[in-house]
Amino acid sequence: MLSPEAELAPKLIGVEVKAIYIRKWRQANIQYYEGLDEAIALLRFGLDAVRLWQVFVMPETDENARVQMISKFVEYQLPMRDIIRTLQLPIGYTPSFDFANGK
Q: Which residue in 21, 43, 62, 97 has the fewest CB atoms around it within 10 Å?
């Protein structure tokens, strides 16, 4: 059990953010596991908690890229969640969408 002083101490929280988008040649700019190593490194530096946030950038003007990005959203988050849960890593994971209008 922690002392009352330790429970009131501020927590150091780190966030690793990875933007995932479709390149012009129809491939994602990163693999699903990228960012996990940086999140683990933040824990090794002594932070109390870490969040890994993958932002899937959805193009508004390219229908084919939108369909591919929806597929990547499902394809990437499932193995990432499995890795974090299986290894019991103290890392929170949040996948999300953002929209790019190309301007």
A: 97
Per-residue confidence in pLDDT tens, the chain, 103 aa: 666 666 777 888 999 999 998 887 678 888 989 999 999 999 999 999 999 999 999 887 778 888 888 888 889 999 999 999 999 999 999 999 888 876 5
Long-range contacts for 27-30 (Cβ within 8 Å, ≥24 apart)?
28/72, 28/76
Tokens of 19: 């933007």
- Evaluated on CA atoms 44, 11, 36, 86, the torsion sign reads positive
pTM above 0.85, yes or no: no
